[in-house]
Amino acid sequence: MNYDASALEATGLGMTYTRHRKAVLADCSFRLPQGRICALVGPNGAGKTTLLRLAAGLLRPTAGALTVLGRTPAEARERIAYVAQSKPLHPHLSVAGTLRYGAELNRRSGRWDQQAAERIAYGDGSIDPGAKIRTLSGGQRTRVALALAFGKRAELLLIDEPMADLDPLARQQLTGALMSSAVEDGTTIVMSSHVIPELEGTCDFLFLIADGRLRLGGGFEEVMAAHTLLTGAAAPGPGCGTVIEQRPAGRGCTALVRPDGDRPGDWLAERPTTEEVLLAHIRNTQAPPFLTESARPVPRQRQQSARPQENAA
Amino acid sequence: MSSTPTKARTPAPAPAGAERRGTRFGTVLQVHRTALWIWIAFVVISAAFLLWLRYGPDASAAAQFQAECETLTRTGRCSAFSDDAAAVRWYEYIGTDLVSLLRNLPPVVAGWAAAVLIGRELENGTAELAWTQSISPARWLAEKLVVPAVFITAGTGLLVLGLRGFIDWTAAHRLLAAGYQTNDAFFALGPSLVAHALLGLAAGVLAALLTRRMLPALAAGALTTWAVAWLVNPWRTEIWPAVARTAKGEGPFGFTAWACKYDQADHKYSVDACMGARPASNFWPAQLTETGFVLLLAVLVVAGAFWCLRRRTG
């Protein structure tokens, strides 16, 4: 297995906000290779935002460790960008003033790209540079918040619910901008969402979190290909692999399984849709988690031997 | 998608040192521009008012009236309760009233620092926006402290100097009424007021980092700052002995004991002036001790604020 440099790597990561409450994230171990566009999926309150905030260096994990681009999140601060779900901006600054604010905050690192930021902010011509942030609509604010993130020319872009309040056209434009940034600059992008169809065409990597734990992780295709939808007369037996979910369908039974060998002959096997796979894992949190090879953390010994290559690159 | 060809993205060369320094504090000024203008307006208007009090027509009229009444044979016109003495009576109290006003400034500074400077940014997430834009939380907090501290020191310092000059002038022209309030104002008006304002800044910042919300932070910051001033005030001159006897004209705290000339020694507010007063030579020892103590407190509070921020963020 060739271990590419990791954008994110977590071992036993856990986060508890206060002592008396249950952990928001527990025992998450995973790896996200660089250059991927990764979807972070999960129901409300699953821990998606907490995971992104940990990666952005805004929170300290209470258990385990997380490295970002091979460093601690604080050391990687200049190389990551984060867009929070609420799209926080100073309401009394103008749009141009906000971009200038971003430029000044990034001047020390010398990474700011004014053109890239302006392209996102003024791309559709609906935003006047002199307009105050407080006069903008929700979607326009999202645009400006994303412009700040793009202007930073980050190597890792963490976006929490980016498209929720954008109209379809703006969504398409910004998705295009994200894709071209990933293709041209090799930016790794992690975006959380619970709108599954939105992610399907864009992302090539996937993490599913439910109830604070990692349920699925890996390349989008690999994860989907590892699951099969079986339809038959009876419930699938022990020979079919791991059953994630089964439900009656007509006179028979439909089951989403993770086959572990040859599939039995008397079942009709179909490729499940993305939605079916994700929803089955969200509903059944007892199913064993599934991580593909590329999404597993690099074992300690290999990590050490891989380090010189990373440095050379 | 825009069809503008994207340029090859070579990172821009790191800017030169001078440019870096020039922008270091720009973001704080940009975000808190309104507060900056309000502060500048407050300082300028107050300073102008002080200059008018000191050099305006009322000042010369009051000084002249007082001088005449002391040198010429007294007439009914010189009675403190006559209409002609109204200007003098105003000058008796305006100085101490202005000192009281200035002493209410540190809690206001604390409330602003707690609610606007830090609290609002933590509450609406713009602090985190800055922390994910190449500014570490510690540097962000340092900038948030240094820039206001410079303006607060300059502004409060200027007002303290101006007011001190005015009070000394009223004292020299025997326009100042002696009493508890004057005694209090005389010893409070000095560099320690600047230190209290800086403590207010630090306490407001710590309150905001602890509560992370605007309104609780505003209340906690302002109350703490007010409480520190309230606790320190009685101790300011207590560690030095009082002067037991002050003959009329010799004066407590270097002033003429003007109130005593109305023979009000049995009145509550002038007891201090005529019986057990503090000598004016205590001013600098008392002020420097207090300034040192309050600044030390402010440094500890700032250290607490950095610790609190560090514990919270990665």
From TrEMBL, chain A:
Keywords: ATP-binding, Nucleotide-binding, Transport. Coiled coil: none annotated. Residues 8-236 form the ABC transporter domain. Residues 301-313 have a biased composition (Polar residues). GO terms for molecular function: ATP binding; ATP hydrolysis activity. SUPFAM superfamilies: P-loop containing nucleoside triphosphate hydrolases. PROSITE patterns: ABC_TRANSPORTER_1, ABC_TRANSPORTER_2. Pfam families: ABC_tran. Residues 285-313 are annotated as: Disordered. This is ABC transporter ATP-binding protein.
From TrEMBL, chain B:
It comes from the Bacteria. The keyword Membrane applies. The chain crosses the membrane at residues 34-53, 145-167, 187-210, 215-232, 291-309. Keywords: Membrane, Transmembrane, Transmembrane helix. This is ABC transporter permease. It comes from Streptomyces abyssalis.
